[in-house]
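Below is a filled-in request sheet from our internal design queue. Each sheet records the structural input a requester submitted and the sequence that came back. We keep these sheets so that new team members can see what a complete request looks like end to end.

REQUESTER: design group, bay 2
PRIORITY: normal
MODE: inverse folding
CHAIN LENGTH: 474
BACKBONE (tokenized):
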């Protein structure tokens, strides 16, 4: 490691130590003071490990050339794939922990985790063994019959949630295949409840969501995502959706007796890593109670340990809890699965035949998810996420100071971070990739960082140094 980079790593670790003593994180997301001791204890080994993986400010991972294996692969198969994504030319092949390799043999530090999915990293051997054993035993049965793993997963989700400061009304779970489907289920459940509740009826079908949110791309979840880029090609949207400003208490008057549901992300991930304030969420809960509207927390990206809590809304006041909580992404660590957890009050409105799914709750996905939830809900594991957050905070704040005014703000908690720029962020994403680090964009000119939750301190230091080199290269 060069002298300059060694000094940078020491400064990041020292900054994390200071931050642990006096956190400047978003209200409600304070980090345990024990992180100071952890960073002091691990500093020497972390910086030594980082020295083995430091990238100098040169291009180390070139995008595949036109005559490469990757380019030949893309040319052969792209004509058969519907083009809905703009992708760089690399073809990913394998992964282990927080690293990924492409078919050219180039190694990347993964700070995307498959868009906050691979919480336990790549190539988890215990999970792979579970997949293998269950695939030999049974993959799918349909929901015409019980299987051995859907029930235990639902029980585990409810019990581990009740053991937190989160949703204390958690009672039952509907298992789906994805986050969008979990939100679709939540919206359907809320509309059914609205028709049956005292004072409800056919008029009580409106749904309120918030600007800058992202709830999915199916027609219902898309209707709750007020972004013209996503909505306009498929207009008109499903009737009955209204939009309010995030964190604007005065704007909550849009919620009326005709509102059956309000859906909100405690942390807007796709929107740019923005946090709902405790005051706003408390006022929102009160408003929903006044008109008997179902409050849905979309924790598809923020949940299952990403914030340092099992559920991000644990950081809110005790009275600010949801009636329905949706989750997906990290739930299967890459195996498609989603879930909507509901209170008993909502559950009583749903009858046999009201909703269904062919693949949702299959024994393969639910056995994997059972393993994942057990790991991610471990208090010691969650404490480690909180501790590692301060290393990120310190490193990113130093980059902000060094590259001002290009970096205008750092937002984050746990292992979800947004680096706000004063310009379009793709150049930084590209420069980081060419130096062996994968990051993604979000919102308006934001670089989003969502590494696997198992990321090591040395890997955090390595990633910060590559980001430093990426900014310096432009």
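RETURNED SEQUENCE:
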């Amino acid at each position: 490691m060069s002298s300059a980079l060694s000094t940078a790593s020491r400064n990041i670790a020292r900054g994390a130590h200071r931050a642990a003593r006096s956190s400047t994180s978003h209200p409600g997301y304070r980090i345990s003071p024990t992180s100071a001791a952890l960073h002091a204890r691990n500093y020497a080994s972390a910086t030594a490990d980082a020295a083995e993986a430091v990238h100098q400010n040169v291009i180390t991972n070139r995008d595949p050339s036109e005559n490469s294996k990757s380019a030949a692969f893309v040319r052969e198969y792209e004509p058969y794939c519907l083009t809905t994504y703009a992708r760089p030319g690399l073809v990913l092949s394998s992964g282990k922990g927080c690293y990924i390799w492409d078919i050219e043999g180039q190694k990347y530090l993964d700070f995307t985790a498959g868009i906050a999915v691979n919480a336990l990293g790549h190539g988890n051997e215990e999970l792979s063994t579970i997949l293998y054993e269950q695939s030999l035993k049974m993959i799918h049965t349909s929901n015409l019959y019980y299987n051995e793993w859907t029930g235990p997963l639902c029980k585990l989700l409810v019990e581990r949630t009740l053991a937190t400061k989160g949703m204390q009304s958690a009672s039952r779970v509907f298992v789906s295949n994805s986050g969008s489907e979990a939100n679709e289920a939540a919206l359907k459940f809320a509309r059914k409840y609205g028709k049956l509740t005292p004072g409800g009826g056919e008029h009580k079908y409106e749904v309120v969501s918030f600007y800058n949110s992202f709830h999915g791309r199916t027609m219902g979840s898309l209707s709750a995502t007020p972004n013209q880029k996503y909505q306009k090609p498929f207009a008109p949207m499903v009737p009955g959706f209204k939009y309010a400003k995030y964190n604007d208490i005065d704007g909550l008057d849009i919620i009326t007796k005709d509102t059956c549901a309000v859906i909100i992300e405690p942390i807007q991930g796709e929107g740019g890593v923005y946090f709902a304030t405790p005051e706003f969420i408390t006022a929102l809960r009160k408003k929903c109670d006044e008109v008997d509207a179902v409050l849905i927390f979309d924790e598809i990206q923020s949940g299952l340990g990403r914030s340092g809590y099992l559920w991000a809304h644990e950081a809110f006041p005790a009275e600010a809890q949801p009636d329905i909580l949706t989750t997906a992404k990290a739930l299967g660590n890459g195996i498609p699965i989603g879930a909507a957890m509901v209170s008993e009050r909502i559950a009583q409105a749903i009858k046999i035949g009201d909703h269904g799914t062919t693949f949702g709750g299959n024994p393969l996905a639910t056995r994997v998810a059972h393993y994942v939830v057990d790991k991610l809900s471990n208090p010691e594991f969650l404490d480690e996420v909180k501790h590692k957050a301060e290393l990120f905070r310190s490193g990113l704040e130093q980059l902000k100071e060094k590259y001002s005014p290009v970096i205008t703000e750092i937002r984050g908690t746990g292992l979800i971070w947004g680096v706000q720029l004063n310009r379009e962020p793709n150049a930084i994403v590209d420069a980081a990739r060419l130096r062996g680090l994968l990051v993604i964009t979000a919102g308006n000119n934001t670089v989003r960082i969502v590494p696997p939750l198992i990321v090591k301190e040395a890997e955090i230091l390595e990633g910060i140094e590559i980001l430093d080199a990426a900014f310096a290269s432009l």
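SHEET NOTES:
- DSSP finds 15 helices and 17 strands in the chain.
- The chain has a mean pLDDT of 91.
FILED BY: M.R.
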